[in-house]
Design brief:
elongated; 48% helix
Length: 373
């Protein structure tokens, strides 16, 4: 009897242990599948966000390249006036577009910097003849997109400035701060890193924290998350710099390469997701993120969500910039642009509209309420 009982207990113990191991393995596999999907979805979101930045920066660059005052200052070889114009424009854009920073510069046909929107009093102008992307803009007269570490490092759109003939290049640079803000809207945090060897002493980010061979690229980085990276054990840090993911007690941390137009690795995006949000990012729960990240979403669905989430992106633009942008808006944005333009222009008086059409601004500089009758 005792022998039978012993056998039964042994069998039950074995089955319990086996079932526990099976359940644990299934749980681990499911957790791994969630993390793999989250890693892939974050990668797709990075790509889509960069496409969005490219599209918006291209529209901006094309509009600015047609500015008559800007073109006149180039033709008159007046870099100081050109710089003042660039600064006035970017200051207005930062105010109305709710962005952290935008840098705009004009490059002459010899690939020397002619004027820029920042640090006007101390313009250390230098040559950009090593920029292959700018040579393409000059030779083919087409816009070019890249991520570059040429000061200021960031996302760059370069477009030709043409007045019958090509007279220069206008370049818009967008730092990664706005990308980090976008990620925070979806319960994720991002720190971008460039390889220290590529960053010039003249760059704004040169004074940012350094971690191993990398320098932090976005000024609005989260110090707590940077400390987590700083204190990682060597094995986990190796995974980060090789573009893999790791987990800590409360976080999923993944890294992705930053590449230029030639595919050269310049640094990495490091994304932090807390455990509560991980399943949502992986598409486990019904959410707006799931509709974006799943394969069923169309390219147009993603485009409209990324560009128009929650707000008409043109609603804060002044009438002057609506006029300047009207010929550079993509068809996909036209309905939003027209809606904002109609709302703004209907609130202007006849005098203000005449000044806007003839001079590009209200000459009287006095606000008059009213509508066209």
């Amino acid at each position: 009897m005792r022998k039978k009982l012993f056998i039964i207990i042994s069998v039950l113990s074995f089955l319990t242990a086996t079932i526990s191991v099976v359940i644990y393995n299934l749980y681990k596999k499911r957790e791994e599948a969630i993390m793999n999907r989250a890693y892939d979805n974050i990668n797709r979101f990075i790509i889509l966000s960069l496409v969005s930045e490219k599209s918006q920066s291209l529209s901006l660059a094309l509009a600015l390249s047609k500015n008559k005052d800007l073109i006149e200052s180039i033709l008159n070889n007046n870099p100081k006036k050109c710089s003042r114009i660039l600064k006035e424009i970017t200051d207005t854009l930062l105010k109305h577009l709710n962005r952290k920073n935008i840098y705009v510069q004009v490059i002459d046909t010899r690939l020397n910097i002619f004027a820029r929107s920042w640090d006007i009093k101390n313009q250390n102008l230098f040559s950009l003849k090593n920029r292959e992307d700018l040579k393409i803009v000059l030779n083919k007269k087409i816009p070019k997109y890249t991520i570059s570490t040429t000061p200021p490092a960031g996302i760059k759109i370069s477009v030709p400035i043409i007045d019958k003939n090509l007279i220069g290049i206008l370049e818009v640079t967008v730092p990664f701060d706005d990308l980090a803000v976008k990620f925070r809207n979806y319960a994720m945090d991002m720190i971008t890193f460039f390889k220290k060897e590529y960053i010039s002493e003249q760059d704004f980010i040169r004074s940012n924290p350094i971690l191993d061979e990398y320098i932090v690229a976005n000024g609005n980085y989260n110090k707590r998350n940077l400390n987590i990276l700083t204190n990682l054990e060597k094995q986990k840090w190796e995974k980060i710099i090789h573009f893999e993911y790791i987990t800590t007690k409360n976080l999923f941390i993944a890294s992705y390469p930053i590449k230029d137009h030639k595919g050269r690795s310049l640094g990495m995006f490091v994304v932090f997701v807390n455990n509560e949000s991980l399943k949502n990012i992986a598409g486990e729960q019904k959410s707006i993120l799931k509709s974006i990240f799943t394969l069923e979403s169309t390219k147009e669905d993603i485009y409209h969500y990324v560009n128009h989430s929650g707000k008409n992106i043109f609603s804060d633009m002044s009438p002057r910039y609506i006029i300047n942008f009207k010929n550079s808006i993509e068809e996909k944005d036209r309905i939003y642009f027209n809606e904002a333009a109609k709302d703004k222009l209907q609130k202007m008086s006849k005098k203000e509209l005449i000044d806007l059409i003839l001079y590009g601004y209200n000459q009287t500089q006095t606000k008059k309420e009213g509508k066209i009758k």
